Amino acid sequence: MNPVFSRLLVVILAWPLLVWGEENAPRLRPSFDASQRAWLEDHRQLRVGLLMQAPWALYDRRLQRLSGANVELMGRLLQGMGVEPVWVRFADQAELDGAVRRGEVDLAPGLVQTPRGLRLWLYSGPYMRVPHLVVGERRDTSVVDLERLERSDVLAVRESSPAFDYLRKNYGNLQLQPVTSERSALTRLLRQEVGYAVLDEARLSLLLREPQFSALSIVGDIGLPQLLRIASRRDQPLLAQIVEQTLQTLPAGEIERLRARWLPLKYPQVSDSLAFWRSVSLMLLVVVMAVVAIMLHLRQQRRSLERQLLEARLALSRREAAEQALRLAQFSIDHSTVGILWVNWDSHVRYANQAAEAMLGYASGALVERPLQALEPSLSMDRWLSLWKLARAGEQALPGFESDCRRADGGSLPVDVSLSFLRFDQAEYLVVFLSDVTERRRARAALQESEARLKGIAGNVPGLVFRLERAAVEQPVVFAYISEASAELVGYPAAELQRADRGIRSLVHPDDQLSYRKSQDAALAGDSDWQWQGRILTRHGQLRWADIKATARRLGEGRVVWDGIVWDITENKQVELELGESRARLRELSAHLESVREEEKARIAREVHDELGQVLTVLKLETAMCELACAGQVAELDQRLQSIKRLIAQLFQLVRDVATALRPPILDAGIASAIEWQVRRFEARTQIPCLVEVPEQVPKLSDGKAIGLFRILQEALTNVMRHAGAHSVQVRLSLEGDELCLWVSDDGKGFAVEQRKPGQSFGLVGMQERVLMLGGQLSIDSRPGEGTTLCVRVVVSEEEVA
């Protein structure tokens, strides 16, 4: 059998005996030298300072006895030293430090070494490690990583504690909530006011015994352990040596048993698995143990080989990846669009990438060891050294500049030069970055030429060209450009109009300011096109009419520009105003003529009705007298008299028709009655069913408005009869606010209103003119095959309503 396997089998079989021997072996006493023994003989009692903090030191008033982890530890140590303890209790570290200054204390257990404490104490090696733990609710078994916690995860930590200072300095991503005590931290955790709490292991072992905190568990470690030491007086170095030797003779499991007794927190430690294997090993047979040991050894050997093979493969893959990355980096540098030169302090090139060689027209490697002045003649040695000193002093990139480099063929190459100081492999370099700006110069020249051309065109346009700009949504709108034609148009130079307190708004006539502001504010608020016409005042007080048209363009990120022009339309506006006045006078004349015509019609109707009516009445009476006198005498005469009577009756009807056509008497009864009468006549004459709706109370209109509405209704019904081919007609008169509305609708064939040519329908033109003379509005809604609706709106004055 393999000797290694034999030794392993012996260890496994002897393990229970070794464990029993470790737990029951007599405790070793330290071996002191003569000076140490003499010192102990002189000091049979040592004063031990205890910080009364559970679970380290507790005092039972009923039994008058001290207990705790530090009390038990010091009892074992002083027993090994052969001296008796004199316990001195203190409430906090400040009282203990004051006592050692006064020489009232010899030893103190459970202290943490600090720079301030080294002035008072001599510390032993650490005998116990007390970690600071992260506590949370029992959700899962995952461990909390402080680096991955978010700002919303709040940690409760006792204020003015080492853990609080450590977390604040090392974890900027954490949101810390200081508390006054560890109990307060766990209470806030239970109330879900915080996500986690940080406590040291000692305080946590006590608090977790309470039922109210039983639902909490340890979810992590902050990485700040407290290393507990035994401190002795600084003026007794021999005592410190004795304590250190005695501490080293303690059995290996003594501290762990103290921890298990006074800090009972369960961790998945190796000792648990060892205890399990100890108990199992006592029950297993020797053969099974040997087989298991052999299998474990073989598995360990195989895993070790597999691990080594995996590590070799990983190392190889890392090396290949590094080489590939190096090749990619070199390829990227060589094929970069930026030329890179590494230049030494003597201005000689030490390295040049392929892009720099291609830019300057040199062969591969031809730029190395070439002075930089050969590439940039203006870069003399003095200038180079000054740039070197500036870059080396600041160790940062210097501001770039534009220059012309000399190519290998003697030509010139415009480049953008930037410098950066670099230390590499114990050497110092200035890295020169060259960017070809040939296209940029061409674009700049083209832009300058384009701007000059634009200014030339704008200066010759017979108007004021401008641009409004808004950099962002919340930024004000400013005039970025105003052409020089402003001086000719309004008398002000462009620079003065571009001031924030001037602009085009300052030129607008006071009476037109409101319309100008409304149109401009609407365009700016909706980022839409801007159009306005109004009056402006020149520098010399002259009144001019201006037409402003601007097109909006959105450039992204809230930036909008309006490109526009201000035209001088004074002459056109004057012609337009004169034409409007002429039309208004013509319309007034037409209205006057129409009024005279209606009055003449009314006069003629009265004369026809009165004069002809009287003559016909006399004629009828004379005929009746003849009939009475000659009745039955001559048959032919009776026939003639009957014919004359019929002609007189026809003349009576003709006179009534002519008088009614000239001015219907029904108008004297009101517009509602006249409309209803006219519609019924139309229905009787055309046999087209008509529906009439008129209100019971209609304000009394002036004679002109009543006649106008009546004539419009007559013309509308005439159009229905001639052109619509309707099966029914609806007429409605209504009072809407201060307007009287007349609606005429039919279900005829209709027509396309937008395709109606001027002069095509004189009936519609006549109605439109009548409505304009009445100061009203006419609207026509019609579609082919869907009938026609005509609406007339006439304003009723207050006198008429009253």
Automatic annotation (TrEMBL):
Under Gene3D superfamilies, the record lists:
1.20.5.1930, Histidine kinase-like ATPase, C-terminal domain, PAS domain, Periplasmic binding protein-like II
Residue spans making up a coiled coil are 572-599
Q: Does this UniProt record's set of keywords contain Ligase?
A: no
Sorted alphabetically, the keyword list is: Coiled coil, Kinase, Membrane, Transferase, Transmembrane, Transmembrane helix, Two-component regulatory system
A Pfam family for this UniProt protein?
A: PAS_3
Q: Where is the Histidine kinase domain?
A: 603-798
**NCBIfam families associated with the record:** sensory_box
Chain ranges of the PAS domain: 450-527
The chain positions of domain PAC read 399-449, 530-581
Name of the featured protein? PAS domain S-box protein
Give TM segment ranges.
275-298
Q: In which domain of life is the source organism classified?
A: Bacteria
Report the source organism: Pseudomonas zhanjiangensis
